């Protein structure tokens, strides 16, 4: 187990949890005795929880007093061999580096169930999984890998939802059954992952660092970098080269506030593009019984992450927009324009059309962002769990497309009539917001095609099992699918 | 089961989940054999989960290879009659449209437990529930409706909290007991809903579309529409009729930003009004042992939704307010006023009282909104679950009234001394914010009455079981209530 | 049980929940009969749930029809003695004040298991716990305290995650085992807290009011008050005393917007200071096997609350900052400065350095706040439960320090070159933001020291069990820890 995990656990343990143990008197003689090797945080928390669930617990440790108080009601034996012999199930809660000392206990551990709860600090630190190494050291024991995804803290404070699952693997079905029973009695749900060769996979679980976020994060970073340099050249470099002006200070706010909404809009559209592609693929194939290509499957699996990253960029865009009027540059420009108007004695006339366009632009942006936040809230695990399947699909699909529509309209209104003006195309390049409109517009048009009654009807039939290819055998084929 | 549900499930399944199955070797001979008809997403996920929990699984399917890989370790029989005969419990994971083919298997299915997991695409598609139809087709079998509220995705990735509950119903107590046992072994919690006549209700569960949000949403929409037209006439039409000015562009931001806070404040007050009415009803009746009128009960049940909608409107109000200084109209007006001041050589004096009032107005608004968001956060399922009863009641009641107080004060400060000015009352109508103050003011005054020590004491006694009507028999009566 | 709890429960019960009961016909004769005393909300909800889980239920009540409908399928006996005799397990769902009437049933209750589910309205209302009082009244019964942390509402709607745990205590191991069995069958997880002397502790659970928030809240309030008065003197009193100007209106927004970010930054730094201190303590001691001093332990335990309060203050700072341009005072000042520029015919030159500094300042603030919100979201129970240990530690530690760095940099940029100007130090006191920079700067410098490769290596070794003190006995000592 990782030292940091131990350490952080010990810091978060509530002080009163020490009194969680039952009276020794309550331990009837028929209760099963379990042995725990190691008195680190995990060993102590596990012992406490086992005692609370009615087991008797004996610790095997050479230094029982060196680290924190052990739970009341547990025995401690400094003679580890005796401790091992007293129970048929032994939890090994020590670091892999000290496993070699267990070799000396091989005779006493013969035929016992050894539960390996250890984790490593890094992936691929060792050539074989900890549990496999333990099995090699003590071939006579039945090693079961389990509990390594639980933290000491979760064990002590009662497991919450996500940490309620215990993965286990091992070569002996009986040993796994024995460990399952203990886990079930602790209020945990057991998932069997097969033989001990799966131990490596299980040991990698707690070391995972957002695997499903990697692709979307990389995409977001690439898009942001690409548009940053594109706009840097179009805005800052252009102004310096053509007009000799240094507007490099704009990088910090103005440029950032162009990159963020562009990336956000494109990524939001990329959330909905795979669904549209999948629908057209099903229409083209005339069946839902063919698997999608791998790239489409992978794309669909990261839609939630794409959407949340898009929301993050949209939120940055909102904050960067709201600070516009307190910026030094903006205040300077406004004062300058007022002063020049007075000096030149110009009178500007209020343009109602411009007011309509500007206010609509802001309104669409706010409504789009509000729906966006709603989508984000419903993707919180506790909220989405409370929704029925139809409610979740309504929000993520119907409201999702409405969000995309509002945000796209917001961007079109931003452009206004500037699309046609040649001065927009500095150095013959289109401004960033025009580029950002391509994907969302395509997605919206394709979606519009799909919800046409005739297309929608065919698609619904396909999704309910109907197939186009073989009309006469149709009903029979779709039986029992 | 709905095709869309199947489809969305298959898209979200993690690629590695295919390796979730235990070794075939681990399946000891004494493990129970279950049969699954249908190899769609739900059937496949169910089979995988059953295998993981130690059951043996046989699929009955005429097209086992047409859709996705089946879990390793499961048998597949294309001869469905043989599959049905091999197990005493059969999961029917096929669409209702194909149930008629099961009729041919009636002899083999006699005496078996048939678990109907199906859902429909819409409510009231068929005259009878799917499970009742199945029972009618195969009268010799014991049909149990169950698992239909679970998704294939939840089954595969381990059920989370909300999806941990399995509702079941059926006419045979033994059959229900058998299904309960399987569900419990899968880590699910069973809730028995009675006989098979409840099947329709169970089949409607996944088709629910925010039933508890309907009334609050309708109320919010009506209030918003009413105030929109009221303000449209008072502001835009008035300006056009009396002054000949076209200020229709104000609809997009200015008018919206009047409607949103008005609706928000009224709906927040409507959250707290039923509680106050209930308290006065209890005081008037002198007992808590009479049920509240139905309308009051229904009102109380949607307080959370009322509050969340009010928060949504308040958030829109905040966003619409914060973009004020970047609006074209506002910038134009400010520049114009500065220019006219210079031209007319007027000097305006700084008004400290006005500064106090304006800053207090903003401050109250921000503090009220901050508390509002806090209330919203604590109503997230995972947060409110972690609160003790007293903590939840403290936040929702004490902090709730404080929020209402801040927001009401914010609105009074907005009005300031304009309440008394006749020019406020265009066409003899009061401005919207005055109308929005009625309900909150009433609620706050009534609440103030209730927390007076003498009233509070009586109310507390009533809520603890004391009754006013029959003083001498008092203690006896409240025994065992 | 508290009257309010009952009351609020009855208000929130869904109307359709009454139909949750199974058919009477489904109740096979071998099902266990349980008795419930009291027909209040909790008693009714408990009965319903027990019936759903397959128990038979008999109510003992003298007034069965006075309060709400009882669940269908339950018997009701107005003769409480007969009801008590019929079952071996009796749930006492009545108020403590009416316990004395139970004394008359002492002969019938002898040898029975009595489950005390009651709560009090306040802490320390009575000299002894309700359950101990009940045991004293009926010494022949086996009293078990249980279920008091569940609400009637949770029982009826199926327990969610946090409310799934049942704490129980009692003097008889057999009685506790019997209650455990019932709880497990209801889908709850049991935690045994020992003998009946723990009843008081259990009865205090639902009365807890944010115990872990008290210290952080007190700290935040003290810091806010201290800086408020400090800045009041430095800004408002100074302006009045030295310049004779009344700028008291600034208290509402300007002053508040100085206090909030200062408190937020200091509290964010105080989140990370204990971790740094702990690391240096471990480095100094050369071992992780010595407990931290109590004050450090307590500090570490409230880091999450410190951080969330800091986030709340930061959010207020954001809102107060964003309304700056719509304030009357600000608009007046800007107009005044424009007018004076024209009158005095001054031309101000655009300062690119100032623009860089101002925009960087805003940018850092926004990025810091965005990360801050991300930290807040991941501390939501349902989100943090879904993270692996490594992911949680990555966010809370790596991203946490990045947040602190951004926010500190934001504050340094705010100061800019003003640090050196003597006019900053009115009455020889430093401005608030300079004071707020002390703790974060110290934390960042110490953290920088810790992540130096040489220090980091030693620390990692210590945290994995290595000890400096006794090098030759090193490996042996760290065995089995």
TrEMBL record, chains A, B, C:
It holds the Pfam family F420_oxidored. The keyword Nuclease does not apply. Signal peptide: none annotated. Keywords: Copper, Endosome, FAD, Flavoprotein, Ion transport, Iron, Iron transport, Membrane, Metal-binding, Oxidoreductase, Transmembrane, Transmembrane helix, Transport. InterPro entries: Fe3_Rdtase_TM_dom, NAD(P)-bd_dom_sf, P5C_Rdtase_cat_N, STEAP_metalloreductase. The chain crosses the membrane at residues 260-284, 305-330, 366-387, 399-420, 432-455. Residues 35-120 form the Pyrroline-5-carboxylate reductase catalytic N-terminal domain. GO terms for biological process: copper ion import; iron ion transport. It comes from the Eukaryota. It catalyses: 2 Cu(+) + NADP(+) + H(+) = 2 Cu(2+) + NADPH; 2 Fe(2+) + NADP(+) + H(+) = 2 Fe(3+) + NADPH. Its cofactor is heme b; FAD. It is found in: Endosome membrane. It is a multi-pass membrane protein. Residues 262-406 form the Ferric oxidoreductase domain. This is STEAP family member 4. It comes from Sparus aurata.
